[in-house]
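Onboarding guide, step 5: your first structure request.
Type a short instruction followed by the sequence, for example:

Predict the 3D structure of this protein.
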Amino acid sequence: MNPFQLVGLILTIGLILGLSVFSGMSRKTVGQKNGAAVVAGIIMGTLVGGSSTVGTAQLAYNYGMSAWWFTLGGGISCLVLALGFAGPLRHNGGHTLVGMINKEFGGTAGVLASVLSAVGTFINIISQMIAASAVLTVLFPNLGLIPELIITTLFMIAYVVIGGTKGAGMVGILKLALLYIAMIGSGILALHLSGGTGAFAELVSTIDNPEGVRFWNVFARGVGKDLGAGVSLLLGVLTTQTYAQAVLSAKSDGAARTGALISTFLIPPIGIGGILVGLFMRATHPGIVAKTALTSFVTQYMPPVLSGIVLGTLFVAVVGTGAGPEKQRMLGRTWMVVILALACVLSCGPLGDMILGFAFMSMGLRAAVVFAPLVAALFFPGRVSHKFAVAAIIAGPVAVLAGNMFGLPFDPLFIGIAVSSVLVIAGAVFHRAK
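The system replies with structure tokens like these:
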């Protein structure tokens, strides 16, 4: 590793982790309320991680504009969160999404929603570990996958144990600023190296493409698959505690909505940078491992100190995103360590390495569990039978998993949401008739 890269890497990791510890220790009260900027920082500090950067470049390397669905879907979901859900979430009186379901439908529904949605969170951690390994692979080519995952796990454990996520808002703002410079700068550099936008388009047209992939089509993998990915992001963000907590932590309804709207406009452009890099690397370096498209570009085409800063930012972004959801699970630290270690073991297995694949699956499973009963609890309180809500919480993810077994041409999330929604509607009809 170039010594100047190492300097940039260490300085960046030290800066972000230092601010994380400082902001976590300096919180005056647990119930301190946040302004719009910090709300946006909390949302983007978790949502913009390995999937939005390393994973987007990886998928773009294979499918081009289809890779935009994670950041595009993230932006759309924040818009819906701001305009449709921020107010009802804040006025419900519950402190967590599971708590809101528990309050409306009873303890059984709350426990089931907590346990089943935890599976989605667990899968998200796997996606972040794979993304982190893509950074370490470029920095230390001879290290090997297992040591890379162990190092990542240790960093995530340390991030949780030292309480770094307590300062997620301020850290999220810093992290986003650095990621913006990294991703937008990388995209501009890819265009510059190609000779401009016209030359870049010509370069993409020269890609050896025996599969006939339509690189400029956002539905390159098929409408059912890519649209399903976008819906997974939309519903997944609305049903994940981290993003709800950001809204609940706001000092006013206006701050909550403004913070979510800031995220709406700032998240999608990050994906464009990753797409440009992924396509550039596919055209100029067709033989590399796809998940290293972004990190390889950074090390080969940026000055050493700058590349170290970018790689450090990517690594901490991945670690923070993986550790952040686990902290929000409100488990004991021992259980957090066990879960992170188990995710590390599974990441070494034959699960594949498509980062965004795991990210979309994570969001989809959480949505299948929580979305329909949460909508009922927020917008139709007292109108749905408890038994039907419990059935919806179980049947939704089961339908998604069953759909995955049959290789459907569309995202099985649609089946899961349909099944759970039908059960909730049936519960409303039954309750009214009763």
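Each response can be followed by summary notes, for example: The chain has a mean pLDDT of 83.
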